[in-house]
Amino acid sequence: MPTFTPPLAIEKPTLISGKIIDYLEAHDKRVDDGILTDTVKRMRQVITRDLMQPRDTRIGKESNTLYTGACARKARLTFDGAEREPLRARTLLKFLLGDLVELSVLAMARLAGCHIEDNNIDLTVTGEDGVLVPVHPDGRYVDEQGQSYNIEIKSCDSRTFDTWLEQGGLDDTWGYLGQASVEIQAWREAGVPVEATIFIAVSTGSRQGSIAEFIMPYKEQLVIGWHERRLAARQDAVPAIPFQGQPEMAFMRGKACDADWFVHGEPTPRVNEKGATYGWDVMTGRTVVPLQCSYCDYRAKHCWQEAVMEIDGTKPVWVLPAQPDTAAEDAGPGPSGLKDASVTKNGGMVRVPAEAPAPPDDPPVPGHGETMEQYVERHRVTLRVCERTGQAITHTFNAIPEEIRQECFSEYQKQLQSLNRKK
């Protein structure tokens, strides 16, 4: 009788995450009053700060993370206390959960026998003007040979977690590597020789509870970039937006290229492996706001005031309408069949409905005697009762007034997921 032998697991040695997994899966555990007391004390501080006090606006305050992102403009606006979008409940809850994940991981690592200390210690890095800028790393790990590592703990969605696993570590899209390199510089200025950062990633999405670690080296160029952004942010003039929007493209199927597809630029053919043209990428005239700007609190007030939110699959994107152009007006209304095209945004494809039902005629502001919550709920109801197709639900969501669209986003996702459950 044939027997099945499962493949042997190839274990990659880790400094912290593997020990955490071993500890969690071990039957015998112990009560460590010291670790328990430290963790409860820090959690108390976090809950008090995140839930029981007004959030610090950081006006006039410098820090490492103020300049680790790629946008010196955002750093300057934050320093000046410029008007920004109010923080939503979902954002505040994400901050709280991220802080609690950090403290939980540190506690588990210590229970697993890892030598970790200096959580959120007060360090500084010296600016080029001699000013000491505060730096607060998540901690420091000391291995059995006495080598010190900077620690950064990041909670992330499952897609991001899988991407980091696939590429063998983080990139600097959101400034994480720059943040870590500046922290290493701060350790060195404090007299602690540190060469690398251990990033511990915890998935909080569909793969909730997955944990991995990545050892990322110090990069001097990222520290130089940090100093350059700080210098730019401290000039008299507010820095310009460092990112450019991308032209929105519509895929038009067919071998022939219609004349009116040239309204906003020259179409690009798509060719299969046999060299035959099977479609064209056509410019719609609209502009997709850069990914980094899509998540910025200053987007609507200071940088992309004309942008409106739409949905690409299940994620929000911000789009600038086509600019009036005399040549375009003379040429006609634009690419024929465009509303039945697949529109490319940020590398994804979203189907623009051609015959979705018209949304109900609702007033753009709360009705007489109606609270804002009732107003939002009325629009959530339209998502629940509209036609049960993805096109109709997306069309209904995009018709919701922009000022409350984000409040309805979770209901939109829920209704899309209900379609999958029915299948």
Report on this structure.
- The longest helix has 23 residues, at 89-111.
- The protein is of the alpha+beta class and 423 residues long.
- The protein folds into three domains: 17-233, Lambda Exonuclease, Chain A, CATH 3.90.320.10; 244-351, no CATH class; 353-423, no CATH class.
- It is 38% helix and 20% strand.
- Strands 8, 9, 10, 11, 12, 13 and 14 form a seven-stranded antiparallel beta sheet that branches.
Q: Fill in the CATH topology of the largest domain.
A: Lambda Exonuclease, Chain A
Number of domain modules: 3
- Class by helix and strand content? alpha+beta
CA-based shape:
globular
Strand portion: 15-25%
Order of helices and strands: HHHHHEEEEEHHEEHEEEHHEEHEEHHHH
What's the total number of strands? 14
Report mean pLDDT, rounded to a whole number. Answer: 85
Percent of residues in helical segments? 25-40%
CATH architecture of the largest domain: Alpha-Beta Complex
Give the termini distance in whole angstroms: 39 Å
